[in-house]
């Protein structure tokens, strides 16, 4: 005990603003359920596994830790589900979210000798008792960040909060024992901040929840003024952290922030500082419902998969619509470059020693943590329970939560819990990794994906220009006219026409017939000649027709092919191509290498007149503007709406207009300065090799859509010719291009990211990876031997160059 007293200065009592980690080690995937438990630093509130806590002591000198150990309780298989005896979350007897029950024990551990003191104990110094109680009762930062990410939109301050009128009724709300004033409900209760009425919440679709008394009370009091009695707070979510309280605005029909909540609660005698959390917020309940969704039913042709365990066979837990991240990172960490950078040549201790004070915010640390988690085999072991769906032994997998938090911190979409495009995430991740390694480019693993692209433009004058850029994917259009089974498709169409059948009328037992397009045709289409209309020739000093051809200046270590299965129909309506791509195990792209400036070729003169550059700027479609103006909208507003929706149509422009009416710059003159585009989208286009001002101009013209912006750049060569690197000879490479990896053109297929669903922003992603001579499926936390890898149904294909 004297040893503890001598280190009291290193113990800190957590404040509501502190991030407390107590569910997962910040440099490994150890948890309180791991063999050595988890150690929480009582000064920084970071958590460490048994094998790593000494590193933190050596780095910080912090000696006092809360040791948390969870052991499973033995529960009879036929025992009914236990109902909570206490309205609490994360405490004994509380709401357990249907998870297995664990016995949690605590002790105080003092390093470096791991001297253990029991907790709770009256002999402990008061400061220690208060600090530990606060940590034990706090919602962990891991959980807070997960809930915050799940909330689709950041909560806004209610427009009714500052003007809320409260009735002086003399009502004093007790700190517990609440009940609905109109029924016997004691859960899901809401306090109306105007009159102090305690009423139950809305009824759920399955009959659970409340009886709608709170919302009915608002409707009854809303006439004739809809803003009367507008705000209610959910009892049981009020704690010292007032921002975490669940406040709902009925007129705004959304969860909101009330900056005067402390004052509004005090009106009813509520001391928020002494309140304990006993109810889930709306976001937390939605999170629980969504993370429990079972993706394990998605298997290859419904076949049972043989689980596989060991180094390199670790699954990733689905955090809620995070399969796009899991599938991508499984393939990425199957490349030698990422394995070397973040596993074989960088230990966890090395990364931790280089990390800042909070390693959870360091990308290098979290990539190393993820790499060791996936590749060490430490966590790829059979779980103790059987998979309920298949009866096969399964693994729990590791949750890439800290990695997702740090990699997506500056991206509004990837930091949310919404489904995302796996390709977009790959490009964004590669860009972040490149910037993180900018001071040590030789160690940058993202360069193994990079290659140079050269575009040759031949104008009718006979002169040429060469534009170069870097990229890390080949995005391939699918030429359906090159399908190899045209006769079969034609016969099927005749059959349907003869029977008067629509596509949806075909019996489920009938064989599905889709166009089969060879991958070679997609690659050939990429390098084929393309005619450019209305091209400005600096040699002719006028507009003419030009021919553009594209080739590669270097071949990367890993070639990533993106199949453009999602195309834009008229009106920018996305459609998924129902097509098979015949992908061989080995491809040769040697014919795709560009040759550069050839003898006898003459370069086009430099310089494009300002008026030509001006013509590339986005202009509002006059018909769309006229129709909107006829509806009574402001002319300037209509022009902005058309420009910001890429002239997609009247309906799209009107939707944009209605959602931006309150923009502070709505009445400002139209400016082609593009500083207001999303920086993460700019970064993605920069990773393609485009110049920044070209990227910003394209994003502005395409309403911020990356794919449309890419198409805009390709379709407006005059807008980018002065910004791209123009080579005067085939040996004049940029420094960046000269440092790119290069080699032969033969590649072997080793990874496939497949997508199931009608849109890249919904459905499910799965990875198939060739490991040790066999294909393995990575379906979130489920890892098994693949019997039928969907080589013809991939969305993104990964090839490794065959040396020699």
TrEMBL record:
The keyword tRNA-binding does not apply. It catalyses: Thiol-dependent hydrolysis of ester, thioester, amide, peptide and isopeptide bonds formed by the C-terminal Gly of ubiquitin (a 76-residue protein attached to proteins as an intracellular targeting signal). Residues 156-272 form the UBP-type domain. Belongs to the peptidase C19 family. Gene3D superfamilies: Cysteine proteinases, DNA helicase RuvA subunit, C-terminal domain, Zinc/RING finger domain, C3HC4 (zinc finger). Residues 619-660, 676-716 form the UBA domain. Its EC number is 3.4.19.12. It holds the Pfam family UBA. Keywords: Hydrolase, Metal-binding, Protease, Repeat, Thiol protease, Ubl conjugation pathway, Zinc, Zinc-finger. SUPFAM superfamilies: Cysteine proteinases (SSF54001), RING/U-box (SSF57850), UBA-like (SSF46934). The keyword Lipoprotein does not apply. Residues 314-802 form the USP domain. Recognizes and hydrolyzes the peptide bond at the C-terminal Gly of ubiquitin. Involved in the processing of poly-ubiquitin precursors as well as that of ubiquitinated proteins. It comes from Camelina sativa. Signal peptide: none annotated. One of its GO terms (molecular function) is hydrolase activity. This is Ubiquitin carboxyl-terminal hydrolase.
